[in-house]
Structure formats: structure tokens, C-alpha cells
Amino acid sequence: MLPPAPALDAATTPSGFLLVLSIAIPIAGVLLAFVLGDRYVRLVAFAMVPLELAITVTIVAAVPHSTGPLVYLLGAWPPPLGVALRVDGLAAVMLAATAVVISAVAVYAGAEFSVTTTKARAPFVFWILLLAVWAALNAIFVGGDLFTLYVALELLTFAAVPLVSLDGRPETLRAAIRYLLFALLGSVLYLLGTALLYGLHATLDIVLLSHRIGAEPASLVAAALMTSGLLAKTALFPLHLWLPPAHAGAPAAGSAILSGLVVKGSFFIIVRLWFQVMPGLPGFAATQLLAALGAAAIVFGSVLALRQERLKLLIAYSTLAQIGYLFLMFPLAFNGSGHLESGGALAGGLLQAASHATAKAAMFMAAGSIYAGLGHDRITGLGGIARVLPLSVLAFAFAGIALIGVQPSGASLAKDLLLQAATERQQWWWAVVLQAGGVFTAAYVLLVLAHALAPPDKPVVLTGPAPRLGDVAALVLALCSLLLGLVPWEPYLPVPYISPPDLSGLGTLSKSLLPVLGGVVLAILLSPRPHPFASSVRWKVAIGMLNRFRRGCCAFSSYVERGNGVLCEWPAASTCLLMLALLFSVLMLVAA
Amino acid sequence: MSIETVIEIVLAAVVLTLGVWTIVVPETFSATVGFVAYGLLVALIWVRLDAADVALTEAAIGGGLGGVLLLGAAARLRDADMMADARPGKLLRAGAAALSVLTAAVLAGVVLLLPDPAPTLAPAAVANAWATGLSNPVTNVLMAFRAMDTMLEKVVLLLAIIGVWSLAPDSAWGGRPGPRHQADPRGVLAFLARLLPPVGIVIGIYILWTGSDHPGGAFQGGAILASMWLLAIMAGLADTPLVSHRSVRFILVAGPGLFLLVGLAGLLFGAAFLSYPPALAKPLILGIEIAMTLTIAATLGLLLAGAPERSTEP
Amino acid sequence: MSGVTVFGLCAAAAVGLGLYGLITNPQPLRKIIAFNLLGSGVFLLFGVVGRRGAAAGMGNDPVPQALVITGVVVAFSATALAIALLLRLFQTSASVARSGRASPGDDPDQVGG
């Protein structure tokens, strides 16, 4: 009997052992911290974070020097019998984004989660889970086998759920249960797909599968089940019922991790599935459906964000909208020969994921500082905080500007790449959605900033000391997102040539101003509460003329809210999940 | 139609009837009992599918510990309607039923469409068994070919413990999980708790030991040990441990810890991470499995015991 | 009709049943039970796939068997975590309801829910 036929890239590459360490180090940290107990958890985490950061840097530096992906065969067993770890450019980008965000969160949380005699529980859980999230995400980015990815995905869920309910209030417990149950439903559908794929091809290795998979109906059904299960875990509209309460209820550092990173794990597996396992199978209609859900997510998430009273909920709904943005790349990557092409659109999507990770984590961290300072996070009560918490507001502002897509942010480069792909593929309608997304983002960011910069009704009294170091961490993270467009991406992502960002030109100025102006108008029209914009007399006249129109818009947004309420009922959302699974099956079967 | 097929059809029909009962019966407690019976019969299906290792696991979990977990929860949550969502309307229920039937039908169709002869890794797994010296191929897959999955899964178990403990009130952090059980020292429970554990421990160790060559292994053995421990706790013969106790923490990480250490030793001195030198493979794997059995027994027991409720000070 | 086919159809039906229960049952504990039913259907499908791949003297392909054992452990952990959350919610909402009668309304500035 011969040993199993080796895969095409079935040999460990020289620096492949780093991939093992990227998973093993945080796991070792989890085990060590668990044994050493309360007093040493933070110390262990602070020791592991720089170590893991160094390993990530080494991996990212090694990728451009390798001809193919970095590969490691676990136990020296080649697939299909064994499991391989692989790092390509896409994985390297996500590894780097994760490392940056987690390091910043660790600095931010250093003060909040220090162990005292009265509270040992929350720090113990937080630091261990921080390391566990890192291990799980790295396993997802590096894993080359669909079942290993399943276990890693579950690891991620188990690390994320207790973060939601860390404070133990009934609302957060309820949010955690809902999150856990819906995530479990998603992962069961994913597992169902892997069972079918194994039955068809006797392997779950991504590279081997990509060679064996064809347009068999069973493969397509499997892909549809896996995709919809992963969408439930990514909280793409209309499967988002669990996200806002979970992300807004966690402590700020936890929210930063959940919103910035955890949803990207399942998103990344969808990318692997569609672009690498079966680039030729989804077909035009399925990619359009995916992006249509994304467009709906942008509208729903943004409109709802504008209606929130609390800053953390606004940011959580913004995550909902930004997740939608991530799915616009799928139809734009669909080329003339019916394949999903790993080109500019994919690069744009991944860049968007990395810039959202950094910017959104920074936003939640800034919001956490504001909450800690004021003792509340009512948006209308933010007046005057720019003077007492300048660093927090600045971090929020930078993160917001980065998200809107002002040059040279990562989001702006991503938008350029996607717009270019939309022109090439002649799908102008996604260009409209892309531009509208920027305007919507500007609307809710400006709404918050307008309140924060407005003069206070009464003198602001801080309830706690401003966490200086934490604010610096948030600011650095926001700056990262703002400067991502300047990074040379060519070694990692398939970036086609686009003209280098021109920071002074008139075109750039107008490109940045248009979403801002549009955002101001939208914020006035769609936010139901009194505006700081409307405080001066001249504005009042202008807004008086707009009033009838504004009433119409508010009616629209309250309809959106009511519709969202229906979709966030458990039976409706889970029915949507099943319908999506069947719809994707049908669309792929028709295309095949 | 052969007599075997008839038996299989009857078995499948009974299992499905129990499944329907579990879903539609109004009382939660009856549903739980239905699910336990369902789990035990599913173990029989696994025997029929010639997968004895899975059958043992399914019986230990589906019918055994999982049943205890669900029954305990059902007993404590008797009047828990305040946590329920709104009951969906008739239309929505009909829609959900239609979609579920459709999904099941699609799956059934796919099952019928699976290729014949089926692709398989069984020959490859058998041909490479030399590398470990163990003759149970399932153990080989779990401990050698796909050892990474097994290690990550053990970390999942640990995270589940951390997640459960994270729900403790701050005042009880580090304390003992669950209420202190008191049973009549001359009652049936105490009698069983004295009688069964010695037998159970022997069986648990046997199942671990035999797992290298026959069906069985760390998980199944650990599950039996855990149930013996729980029996002693429920009879009041033992108390749940302090979760802050160093030795408890140590036992809970022993399995994945040793796995990781052996894996890293392979990375440094051997062929690869999680590879075993052929001469040492069998003792190394057995060592890991012994540590894992202890860890699994402790983890399963503590998962059932729940979050710490009693503080360190009595 | 062979045994494999019978159990394959049984697995598909268990998945359908579990899905229906998970969608329509309002009680969280019943949702957890339905999730377990759904999971056991998926595992059975792996078993059927493995049984079809019987070869080399093995009655069932060992790889899917190993995947199922891993999956069962993960599903059990999930059940335990979900039930712990549920019991904790039961305790806290009971105590909030009790204290709520004494001092109506909890802190309106807290985010959540």
C-alpha cells in the first residue's frame, strides 16, 4: 500500500515552523495562565503578547521571500490523511491586523483588568480569553483543512461568548445565550457541509479539494450550507440578530475584539471557500445575492446607527453596516470566464477587513474611555467632552475618518480598488452602493463628533480618571487605520496599479468632501433627535425648510427600525438562515 | 429484503419517533427524557454502522452525561418562561416546517447521490498504522494523523470550563461549584455510590487502555470516570473541589499541556510538530492519553457541576 | 435498500427535525435539546459517509469516525456552556425581579439588551 498521494504543495517550507508557533504560543499562554491563577494571568498575557507579535512579524516578513505559500505539515503527514498549515498573502494580512489590534487592546485593557482582591474573576477570564481569541483566529487564518477550521471556529466562539457576559447582568447574559445559540446553528450547518464534502472527495484539505471539486449537485449544496452557516457567524444582514446586543454589552476591550476581529474569522473562511476551494462554482447570481445582502446591511446598519441613543450601540450597528461592505467584493471579483478572480476586488475586500478591524477596535476603545469618564454614553449627553477627554475624542475622530475612506486610509484604498473593479466589470450599481456606504458612514461619525464638539449644557464632571495610556493605544490604532493606504501591499495582495494617493490635489479634496457633505445632510435627515447642527439661527432657517422632507425621512427610518425588530426575532432570523441556504443551493445549481 | 434491513428500518423508525416526541412534546422534562432515550438508541445505530468507538462516545455523552446535564437543567428551570422568546405564529411555524422538510429532503437526495464506490481514507489510515504501533485506526487518526484537531478540541473543553466559571458571582469566585449534596447515608444513592465507583474506575481505565488496539480511548474512559465522580458527589460522599485549587487547575490542563509539550518536542528534536519517533510512539501516545483521561474526567465533571456558587470562606 | 441508505435518510430526517425545533421552540432549553438532535443528525451523516467508505478490512472509514468524536466533544461543551448561561440568567433575573419590586427600574444608563 502506497502512502497517500501528496498534495501539490505537500512539503514543509523552511520557515513553516513559525505557523505552528503562531498557534502554539497563545495556547501555551492560555494553559499557563490557567494554572498559575488569578495573580499571574495579566503577567502571562503581557509576556505572550510581545512574543506572539514577534512571531507574526517574522511570518509576515517571510511571506514575500517564499515562492508559494508557507506550508507546514503537522506530524509530517501530508494531506489528505494529515493536516497542513498554510500562509499566503491573504492570511499574512489578517495575521498582521489581528496582532496589531490585540496588542493595542492588551495595552488598553492593562489598567481596567488588573487584578485586585475584590475583583479577580473578570481579569482572569478576560486575559485568558484574549489569548484564546488570538490562538483561534491564527488557527483560522493558517489552517489548511476545513475540519480544523471548524474546530478553530468553535474555539473562537467559546472564547467570544464569555466576553459578552463578563459583567453578569441579565441583559448581557441574554445577549450571550442568543449569540451562542445562533453561532451554534451556524457551525452545525458548516459541519453538515464538510460531511458532504468528505463523502464526495474523501479529503477536507483546501488545496486538494480545489483540484477534486466539480459542479456535482452535492458539492454545491455543501458549499451553500457552509456559506450560510458562516454568514450567520459573521452576522451579515439578515442574520444579525445577535450582534448589536452582544457587541454593545461587552466591556469596551471585549467589544473591540468582538467587533474588530471575531466576525472576521468566519468571513475569512468564506473567502477561502469561495476564492480558493471553488472559485469556478458559485456563479454570477450567487455573488450578486451575497453583495445584495451586503448592500441591505449597509442601509439597515447605518440607518439604525443614526437612531441609537447610546454610543456603544451606534458603533455596534456601524459594525453591521461595515460587515455588509466586506461582501461587495464578491460580484466584483467575478470575471468573464465565470471564475472568482483573486485580483483587485479581493485585495480591496481584505484591505477593508483589515482597516475595519483597526478602526472599529479604536472606536470601541475610545467609547469605553468616554463611558468610563462620563459614567454614561448617551450621545446627546456628549456635549463638552472634547475639552475634558480630548484624546478619546481624537481617537474616535481619526477612526471615523479612516472608516469614511478619506485618503490615505486603508478604507479609501479599498474603495478605489473596488470602484476600479466595478468599472472593469461594468457593474455600476455596486459603485453606487460603495459611494453610498461612505456617505452613510460619514453621517453617523459626524453625528457623534458634532455632539462631542458641541458646548455642554452644564459643566462636565468626570466620574473616573481618564485612562491616558488606553487612549494613546486607541489613537495609535486609529492612526494605523488612517495610514494603511500607504503600506506597500503588492507582496501580499493582488493589487493592480492605481495611482499613488495624491494628498494635495483638488480631486482628492472633493473625493473626501463629498461623503462628508452628504453625511451631514443624512445625519440631519435621519437622526430623530435634536441636533447640535441645528443650534445656530442660520441653520435653523435652513432646517426649517427641510423639515417636511426630514419628517418623511424619519418615517422611513422608523419603518426600517420596525422591520429590523421583526428580523431580529429568533424564528424570523433562523428561518432566513435556512432560506438563504436553500437559495444559495438553487442559484449555484442553476449556474452549474 | 433481508432480516437485517428490517431491523435497521425498525431501529431508524423508533429513533425518529423519539426525535419527533422530543421536539413536539409540551413539557420540557419529557423532552429531556425523550432525548436521553434517543441518544442511547442512536448509539445502537453507530454499532450497526460498524463504528464502535463512536457508539461508546455517543452512549457516554448523548445518553449519559449529556442526559444528566439536560435533566439537571430541566429540573432547575421548571418555571423559566420569563426567558422564553415569543411563541412564533402559526404561519411562521408552518413556514419553518416547510423549510425544514425541504432541507431534509435536499439532504436525503444528496445522500442518495453520493458517489459509488465511495472515496475513502481507510486504506491510507491502515497502511500508515506502523508509524504509531497502535492497531485502533480511530485512535491513530485522533492522536497522530489529525492530532491538531484533538489538541484544539481539548482547548475548547478548557474554554468551556472558563466560560462556565466566568458566570460565578464575584463573591463566589474561586469557590466550590454547585450546592453541597446531602443524601441519606443508608439510602440507595449512597449505597450505589459506594458500590459502583470501584467497578466504574476499573472499567474506565480498561477502556482507556484497550483504546490503543480496540474500540475505546481517552474520551470514553474519561466520561466513565467522570460519572463515577459525579455519583459520589451527588450521594454526598465527596464535595466539589475549590476551583481556585492549584491541583484542580493542574489536572484540567494536564492533557492539552502534555500534548503541546510532546508536540513541541517533536518540532525541536523530531520530524515535525506532533510527530512521534516510531520507537517511542506508543508510550508517548499512551502517556498523553492517560493525562487526557484525567483531564477529561475532571473537565466533564466540573462542566456538569456548573459555576462556583459557594465562596471560599464557609 | 441497504442499511446505509436507511440510516442516511434517518440522518437527514434528524437534521430536519432539529432545525424545526431550533427555529420554532421558544424555550432556550428546548432550543439546546433541538441543537443536540440536529448535531446528532449531522454526526450520523458522517457515520453513513464513513460506512460507505468501508475498505481495507475496516467496516467504517476511521477518519470520519475521528471527526465525529471530536465533534461530539465540542457539541457537549457547547451544551454545557449554554446551560450554565441559562441557569445564571435564571438566577440573576429572579434576583433582579425581586429587588426590582423594592426599587423599580435598574440603571437606565447601562448599555445592553
From TrEMBL, chain A:
Annotated compartments: Endomembrane system; Membrane
Pfam families: Proton_antipo_M (PF00361)
Residues in NADH:quinone oxidoreductase/Mrp antiporter transmembrane domain copies: 144-440
Organism: Bradyrhizobium niftali
Source domain of life: Bacteria
Keyword Hydrolase: no
GO cellular component, one term: membrane
Key words of the record: Membrane, Transmembrane, Transmembrane helix
Mode of membrane association: Multi-pass membrane protein
Spans traversing the lipid bilayer: 16-36, 43-63, 83-110, 122-141, 147-167, 179-200, 220-243, 255-275, 281-306, 313-334, 354-374, 386-408, 428-449, 469-489, 509-527, 572-591
Principal location class: membrane
Name of the protein described by the UniProt record: NADH-quinone oxidoreductase subunit J
UniProtKB/TrEMBL annotation, chain B:
Listed transmembrane segments: 6-24, 31-49, 55-75, 96-114, 151-168, 188-209, 221-238, 250-272, 284-305
Keywords, comma-separated and alphabetical: Cell membrane, Membrane, Transmembrane, Transmembrane helix
Top-rank taxon, per record: Bacteria
One GO CC term on file: plasma membrane
Span of domain MrpA C-terminal/MbhD: 14-78
Pfam hit, one: MbhD
Compartments in which it is found: Cell membrane
Topology of the protein relative to the lipid bilayer: Multi-pass membrane protein
Domain Na+/H+ antiporter MnhB subunit-related protein, first and last residues per copy: 188-300
Keyword Transmembrane helix: yes
Similarity field: Belongs to the CPA3 antiporters (TC 2.A.63) subunit B family.
Protein name per the record: DUF4040 domain-containing protein
Organism for this UniProt entry: Bradyrhizobium niftali
Classification lineage: Bacteria, Pseudomonadati, Pseudomonadota, Alphaproteobacteria, Hyphomicrobiales
From TrEMBL, chain C:
Keyword Cell membrane appears in the UniProt entry: yes
Predominant place of localization: membrane
Record's bilayer topology term: Multi-pass membrane protein
Lyase keyword on record: no
Compartments where located: Cell membrane
Keyword line: Cell membrane, Membrane, Transmembrane, Transmembrane helix
TM spans (from-to): 6-23, 35-54, 66-90
Organism domain of life: Bacteria
Identification of the protein by name: NADH-ubiquinone oxidoreductase subunit 4L
Protein's organism: Bradyrhizobium niftali
